[in-house]
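User: Here's a chain of 343 residues. Predict its fold as tokens.
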Amino acid sequence: MTKMTKTKIILPILGGMLLFGAAVVPNWGVLYAAPKKESSITKITDAQQKALEIAKAKIKEITGNDYEVVAAGNDKSTMKFKTKNNKSDSILVSSKGEIAHLSLTFSYKDLKETKLKEQLDKAWTELFPNEDESLQNVTVNMFTGMATEVKASNSKGMIGLKDGKLIYGGWYAKEKEISPDALEAADQVLKRIGKGLTKTGRDLKVVVKRPGESSVYGFEYTTNKGKVRIDIEEKSLVPVRVSMDEKILSNGKKQAYEAEQKKINSLDINKLGKAAKQEAKTIMKLDLSGYNVAKDKYRNDVLVFTKKGAPEVQIGFTGNGSFHTFFISKYHRIVLPTDPVKL
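Assistant: Prediction complete.
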């Protein structure tokens, strides 16, 4: 029997060199992990862990739940996290350990007995005392230095809170649930617009409700030329906002932006204001006698009408000197989102 010769495996000797973070020991031929200096990676990990705990604590404070939170990136000033509860959730924690931004959407039934639940229940009962259906979905938005905004909804309506205080709500009513006089009032406004419009449909989009204020019915009309939105105050039945698609005024032709801006800026404000007052009187039955007129500070296509002791009125116009939007400013907030909260 032939004696087997042992094969000796020899590792390359690279005395003193480093190979992918490991050192080769010449005499033993064995690789060992070189000790690593404490790096910024460790510090970032520690910082991330701390920020993660801050994010989880805030979520627990709001919802009462321990949602699973995962890192979603970072930059020099903030660390971003998401929850596995909802893919749209986002939490930003600043390097100072503060919540820079938070956006959460969750099911109302997931809410524990937290301060938020108490606020929502109180607000819903205040605005909808005769509705027994519980809320379904909730969304919370926070930004540093700004009010915390909360919206919650179900199939009947929605409510909006700022810093825990009820601001407004939207009732998803059917036309048969409101006064026929309100429907007639809105139809009459559409007729007074003229411009060859023919009604092809009418939809009660929402009834906006605010604590201590008269409700506002928000209608959307479809016509042969485009959509028209008309808002009617419940008690007075007066129109508080009229807005129409600009294509109604331009017969479907869209002007290039720069050309439109040039035309807008060339219009004489006094002449434009006089024409706007006349049209507001015709469509809205709004008397703007004695009102001063000026362009809005932030929009060069909006006229602002003011008079001491009277509500401000704003009217939007095009480069052709036509008017597409009329609203009494104190009611302009009704344009706020009233759509149901979706998960």
